[in-house]
Write a structure and sequence with these properties.
- By secondary structure, the chain is an alpha+beta fold.
- The chain has one domain: Arc Repressor Mutant, subunit A, CATH 1.10.10.10.
- Helix content is 58%, strand content 13%.
- Strands 1-3-2 form a three-stranded antiparallel beta sheet.
- A hairpin with a 2-residue loop joins strand 2 and strand 3.
- The longest helix has 28 residues.
- The radius of gyration is 18 Å and the shape is elongated.
- The termini are far apart.
- The N terminus is likely disordered.
Length: 110
Amino acid sequence: MSKPELGDPGPVEVFAALGDPTRLSLLTKLSDGQTRSIATLSADTKLTRQAVTKHLHVLERAGLVASIRVGRESQFGYRPEPVAEARSYLDRVSAQWDEALARLKALVER
């Protein structure tokens, strides 16, 4: 699987990509570790292949999926690293808020 071409996306790109229900659904389908073609991903949905392609490219730019050419088709697969990095980011932000709230509580209780 190839890595995204645009460098290392940050949490903003990952969260933006995950914020769309269609992209989240596509990512859920791919999260089982199997690579799938655009035709396979668009089957059993109301989405056109073009719509699926656009959503997959957003996911790819965010680093959440990677593509590989197999003959005439592109196969897309899930990349878990950006989700782990986003989770780590949220854990850091949560810890900062916990510390800020603890300081506020201590100040109020004086």
